From TrEMBL:
The active site is at S42 (nucleophile), D194 (proton acceptor). It comes from the Bacteria. A motif (DGA/G) lies at residues 194-196. Keywords: Hydrolase, Lipid degradation, Lipid metabolism. One of its GO terms (molecular function) is hydrolase activity. A motif (GXSXG) lies at residues 40-44. This is Patatin-like phospholipase family protein. The keyword Hydrolase applies. A motif (GXGXXG) lies at residues 12-17. One of its GO terms (biological process) is lipid catabolic process. Residues 8-207 form the PNPLA domain. InterPro entries: Acyl_Trfase/lysoPLipase (IPR016035), NTE (IPR050301), PNPLA_dom (IPR002641).
């Protein structure tokens, strides 16, 4: 196969990040496919960091082994969690935890008690796992892959993107900090929550900081939902999915609008280039799962998600590999609606071979 290069954008979504693990595992099998940079949020930030570390200390196979090790350790830590599927869950709705009494009471408990009362010592097994596995200094100094992790600044409501040379265990934890479960993560006097609220993940760093024009998004939060949610849990789950997709959809529509300008000849004398958009997502394959499944880290369930991710990535590669660097393989208007009107009217000249998001930084 011809050598190709992509930029990776990895969404967050709790245990559903194991789907992304499967996607990455399959992509890493393609020796001619270079991952030039990765932007991630929450579980996507964790996957991106483990990926970068594996590539830094070894090669593609090392990265695959490190991802496998991380998710194994995640499952081992989860063995002591009260969030476990019951025998009834496994029989009636595999993957979900609707019959777990602790999960059912969790929403009530967190409605009047915060992690500052429920988890005063800020216990987080993810921190121990990351510190055990990763030498963050090597990640910061690596020359193999650019890394961008997104978190939400609690004070300003703005997205904070941690660049490669800023990556620490705390920046990963900040990106994955669900405020109902963990205390805000403090870094340099600022406090951060999960990046999913404002950038899931942030796309502009990839396009602004790198000269690759192929953007591959691994989406794990469903855009479309098969039915109207009517139960309390389903309503919360759907509202969360919509919120955690909002920034991604907005940025993708903006890019699509700029691509249409280029198609119509408005390329600012060659300074504006097309960005080819590609998606690997869950489709309707995980629509039977609800929010409780994002807390389920049992090994059989994680490997189910991994295998599903590998399958979808394999299908995408077989159908679309030759289109990398040539055309988009994702129909933005079909799945996300029409492009952003701002993209049609608001463009400022940028540096040579400017990327779409340069207009935000003039």
């Amino acid at each position: 196969m011809e050598k190709k290069k992509i930029l990776l954008a990895l969404q967050g979504g709790g245990a559903h990040g194991a789907f992304t693990w499967g996607v990455l595992d399959r992509l890493l099998e393609e020796e001619n496919l270079e991952i030039a940079a990765a932007s991630g949020t929450s579980a996507g930030a964790v996957n991106a960091t483990v990926l970068a570390y594996g590539l830094t200390i070894g090669n593609r196979q090392t990265a695959r082994e490190m991802l496998d090790l991380f998710w194994r350790k995640n499952a081992e830590s989860g063995m002591f969690s009260p969030f476990q599927p019951t025998w009834l869950d496994r029989m009636v709705s595999p993957g979900n935890m609707d019959f777990n009494p602790f999960y059912q009471s969790w929403g009530i408990l967190t409605s009047f008690l915060s992690p500052y009362q429920l988890n005063p010592f800020d216990f987080n097994p993810l921190k121990d796992t990351l510190n055990e596995m990763i030498d963050f200094e090597k990640v910061r100094n690596n020359q193999k892959i650019k890394l961008f992790l997104s978190a939400t600044n609690v004070r300003t409501s703005q997205v904070k993107v941690f660049d490669t040379d800023e990556i620490t265990v705390d920046s990963v934890l900040a990106s994955a900090c669900l405020p109902q479960v963990f205390k805000a993560v403090e870094i340099d006097g600022e406090h951060y929550w999960d990046g999913g609220y404002v950038g899931n993940p942030a796309l502009y760093p990839l396009l602004w900081e790198h000269d690759c024009n192929d953007l591959m998004v691994v989406q794990i939060n469903p855009t479309n939902y098969p039915k109207l949610p009517t139960t309390a849990h389903d309503i919360v789950d759907r509202a969360t999915d919509i919120g955690f997709n909002a920034s991604l959809m907005r940025e993708i529509r903006f890019i699509n609008g700029l691509n249409r300008l280029v198609d119509n000849g408005f390329d600012y004398d060659g300074e504006l280039e097309k960005v080819y958009i590609h998606f690997i997502n869950t489709g309707e394959g995980l629509n039977h799962l609800n929010g409780s499944s994002k807390l389920n880290v049992s090994w059989d369930y994680l490997t189910y998600l991994r295998d599903f991710g590998r399958k979808n990535a394999d299908s995408w590669i077989k159908e679309n590999y030759d289109k990398i660097g040539v055309e988009s393989t994702f129909d933005v208007e079909k799945f996300f609606g029409s492009d952003s009107p701002e993209a049609q009217t608001f463009i400022l000249p940028g540096r040579k071979k400017a990327r779409p998001f340069d207009c935000f930084f003039q």
